[in-house]
Structure formats: C-alpha cells, structure tokens
Amino acid sequence: MAFPKGVSGNPSGMSKQQHQLLNKVRNSLNKAVDGLGTASKDGTTVMAELITQALKDDVVGTLKAFSQFIPKELNVDVTHTQSAKSLTDDQLADIIAERARARLLEEKVINPEQEETVINQ
Fold first, then answer.
1. Does 11 map to a domain?
2. Secondary structure of 39-106 in the HEC alphabet?
3. How far is the C-alpha of 18 from the C-alpha of 110, rounded, in Å?
4. Is the pLDDT of residue 21 over 70?
5. Statement to judge: residues 66 and 91 lie in one domain
6. Domain check: are 58 and 97 in the same one?
C-alpha cells in the first residue's frame, strides 16, 4: 500500500522508540520461549516442569488452557478395505499375537518392574 506524499504510514501509531521497545520485548519473549525447551541435567525441560506444576496447582484451568490449542472439529476420512476378510484364521492369529507382543513391550518400557509374561506363537 502506497501512502500519499507527506502522509505517514503510521499516522496514529507508535514512535520509533516505541517500536524499538516492542521489538526488544518480542525478542525477549522469543528467547524465553526457546529456553523452555532446553533440557536440564536430569533430562527434563523447563516447559515440562512448568506444565507439571500448573497441573498440580490447577488441573481444570490448565486443561482448559490446553484445550484452546486443540481443533474444535476434526474431520477424518476413513477408507475401509476388505483385507481382513481375505486373511486366513492363522494369519489373523499371527497379527493379533504380534500386536499383543508389541503391547507387552510398551508396558515393559513404562513399567520395567512388571513380571515377565510369555506369549506363545
């Protein structure tokens, strides 16, 4: 947009010093947000610690704040296939067993003290 000669591009706006101050504030905020993702010695991040503390202080308020970042509506187009109908019983049993093994591995990662469970093929 071009302004006529003698007319400022910022007629009611801020002075140069105000713009500089605003840019300093923006830069400081950007640095602060970037620092939130930096891991500490124990491997946690400042952001994780802040979220944990916020959840301890006010679960409902924190979850409401997070919900503002989640889409209100999500449309998912699912195309169904008939591949399961074409599998034999043995093939289906193998798939189910593989998924059960994967689930057990996930549980071991989450709860390493859990007893050993064996799934036969």
1. no
2. ECCCCCEHHHHHHHHHHHHCHHHHHHHHHCCCCCCCCCCCCCCCHHHHCCHHHHHHHHHHHHHHHHHH
3. 52
4. yes
5. no
6. no
**For the stretch 34-69, what's the b/e string if a residue is b when 16 or more beta carbons lie within 10 angstroms of its beta carbon?**
eeeeeeeeeeeeeeeeeeeeeeeeeeeebeeeeeee
How do residues 33-81 score in pLDDT, each as one tens digit? 777 777 777 777 787 888 888 889 998 998 898 888 877 787 777 776 6
Q: What is the distance between the alpha carbons of residues 61 and 53, in angstroms, rounded to a whole number?
A: 12
Determine the structural domain holding residue 118 and report its residue range: 86-121
**Two tokens at 94?**
């193998």
Tell me how far apart the alpha carbons of residues 19 and 52 are, in angstroms, rounded to a whole number: 36
